[in-house]
């Protein structure tokens, strides 16, 4: 059968010839679909797999890196400012941002919205007690969607825009002012928590989607491991946030109380 198929919408020749297509065939059949499925279903299958993949690479990888970089807020303002300067002066920054981050992010976010809207579940994955997780994955997706747009737009254009904050600026103080607003602070707690839940639960469903965890025991083990990862990431995320507003003394900075005592003794 040729690569072009019979033209009746069936998947006759889609998988032949190219060795990559053999991988596609195995994944496709393993997902429970038959070779009599239409091309439309196959396209949807490929899009769902790309959506799943983009959730891990680059999204999950980026969130881990991003939270780690932000945790320098707990070291010192100077260290944090150095990290932001370093990241902003990376070569090919626009290409890295758009190719490696924004494009896959936008795909995952908008195709994700379509999945939520069209409400198509992977019934084969939802047989057991994962129904609540299915709903929570979609609810958290909506919160994360709004949060990420708010976060990117406010950071890029309002709080620390590159025009007003060139290399060597005090990003830390600008962010400290921003997060000291209790509405902003608690909105970030909600956004970070929703992101971490979505990511950790998503890694469990990812392992099921790709046939990595098939049995009950392996799925339970993954759930425990991802809960631990989620809690660690939550600690890192909220810890970074608190690093901006905490009253703890910092390198090169005196506590307000120390300043007051020093003034009295003059
Ligand atoms: C930091 C941002 C995000 C990360 C790290 C992330 C990560 C993930 C991961 C790892 C999965 C699991 C994929 C699978 O089940 O195979 C997933 C699934 C999903 N994501 Fe995201 N995601 C993010 C943002 C979003 C946003 C903003 C939306 C859309 C509003 C969204 C919608 C979805 C949906 C609907 C699923 C379930 C897909 C399914 O059950 O097949 N995600 N995400």
Task: Give a short overview.
This protein is 70% helix and 0% strand. It contains 9 helices and no strands.
The succession of helices and strands, N to C, reads: HHHHHHHHH
Structural category: mainly alpha
The CATH superfamily title: Fumarate reductase/succinate dehydrogenase, transmembrane subunit
Bound molecules: protoporphyrin IX containing FE
Whole-number average pLDDT? 85
Mind telling me which CATH architecture this is?
Up-down Bundle
Strand content: under 5%
Return residue spans where pLDDT drops below 50 for at least 5 consecutive residues.
1-10, 251-266
Please report the total strand number as a whole number: 0
Percent of residues in helices comes to over 70%
Whole-number total of structural domains? 1
Q: Taking Cα atoms only, what radius of gyration do you get, to the nearest Å?
A: 23 Å
Task: State the end-to-end distance.
Answer: 93 Å
Give the overall shape, derived from the CA principal axes: elongated
Main sheet properties:
none
Q: Write down the CATH class.
A: Mainly Alpha
- Given the structure, what is the number of helices? 9
């Amino acid at each position: 059968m040729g690569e072009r198929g019979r033209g009746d919408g069936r998947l006759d020749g889609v998988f032949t010839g190219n060795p990559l297509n053999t991988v596609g065939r195995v994944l496709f059949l393993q997902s429970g679909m038959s070779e009599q499925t239409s091309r439309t279903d196959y396209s949807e299958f490929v899009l769902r797999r790309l959506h799943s993949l983009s959730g891990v690479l680059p999204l999950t990888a980026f969130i881990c890196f991003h939270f780690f970089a932000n945790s320098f807020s707990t070291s010192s303002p100077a260290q944090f400012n150095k990290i932001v300067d370093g990241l902003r002066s990376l070569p090919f920054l626009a290409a890295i941002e758009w190719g490696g981050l924004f494009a896959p992010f936008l795909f995952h976010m908008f195709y994700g919205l379509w999945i939520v809207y069209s409400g198509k579940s992977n019934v084969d994955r939802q047989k057991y007690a994962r129904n609540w997780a299915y709903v929570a994955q979609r609810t958290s997706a909506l919160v994360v969607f709004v949060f990420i747009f708010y976060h990117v737009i406010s950071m890029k254009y309002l709080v620390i825009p590159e025009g007003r904050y060139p290399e060597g600026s005090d990003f830390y103080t600008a962010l400290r002012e921003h997060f000291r607003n209790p509405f902003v602070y608690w909105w970030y707690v909600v956004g970070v928590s929703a992101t971490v839940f979505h990511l950790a639960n998503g890694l469990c469903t990812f392992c099921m989607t790709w046939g990595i965890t098939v049995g009950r025991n392996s799925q339970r083990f993954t759930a425990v491991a991802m809960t631990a990862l989620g809690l660690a990431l939550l600690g890192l995320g909220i810890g970074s946030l608190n690093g901006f507003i905490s009253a703890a003394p910092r390198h090169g900075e005196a506590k307000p109380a120390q300043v007051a005592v020093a003034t009295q003794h003059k």
